[in-house]
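Troubleshooting: if your tokenizer reports a length mismatch, compare your output against this known-good record of 366 residues.
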Amino acid sequence: MSNFILKRIELLIAFTIAIVGVFYFEIQHDYRAYVREWNSIFNGNNPYNAYGVIFHFFSPISALGTKLPKLIFVLLYFISIYKFMEYKREEKLIIRILLFNPLFWIFGVAYGSNDVLLASLTFLALLSYINNNERISGVFFSIAANLKFTPIIILPFLIFKRNNIDLKLLRVVVMYTIVFLSIGYYFWDVKLMQGVLFNVQRDSSIFSIFRFISGYLQPLKFADITSLDFLSIYFVIFSWIICFGCFLKYNLDKYLIILLAFSNVLLFYKSGHHQFYLVFLIINIVVYIHHKKSMLQNKKLLYSAILFWIWIFTFTVLYPLTGQYSGKYFIREWVGLPTFILHLIFNIQIFTHIKDKKASILTLNR
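Known-good structure output:
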């Protein structure tokens, strides 16, 4: 029996268990708020949430069955894995990580986070782009960006390249975004964009260093500082602009710089929810398969990535086991600090890898 057939069997087993899980687990966590919001929208109220217009389009689907949107999230995740298997069937370890990582099973199957849908759309968009299908890639990117605003972090690195613009990708993204926003505007006018402000007003949480600073321990209280949440947006924007500027000026590898830019945003974003790391996992995988040889040779980068993801996966598993970090261990209050340190180490290794790779290219061109 070939490895590809074995992988398809694994995919089928995981898919079957996941579908059973979708209907087995009760409506809980963020999905409870989704259903409440979809019901409100379906009953004629204006949307008020942190998401884009695609999220609002799920309201009639939810009216047909409250778990149908969650089922769609999970189905698309498996479709994206199947597409990856067609593209890189030899990557057995990566396929198993995609199939069995706890971020998907806990925050997708059990909790029903829409970040599973976002990660799937982003994965399909990147795979399409790698296969030179800008039109399909643009459609997926447009749907993803109108679900949540996260893909906007990625898109400029694919559209712009020094003295060149990928007009095909840009046209498709803009065209479909206009269509989605026009439909949304017809139903809800400018109120459909309330999600932008909603995200800025979030409180710091869990994996964020800002949650550690403003939490129960308050390590900077001696300096009369109880919160630095307001700085998060400035760090996020500034770090992204630096990455994009260096990308254009130095003609850096688009996939590596996307990894660094997205990593910077997660590092400094004050809302450090587990499910946000699903898209980051997808970007890690895409960059790894694109630069596998050089990454495997860079032991510091490899080990820092492994250590970081072991940490994230471990605390993802602990989340439901500890009543969402309640109890005597006060995990919510301190987990942001070690997460920040491990993420910063990983970040530095990504930066160093980009710098070394650029230096080696310049040496070869002399």
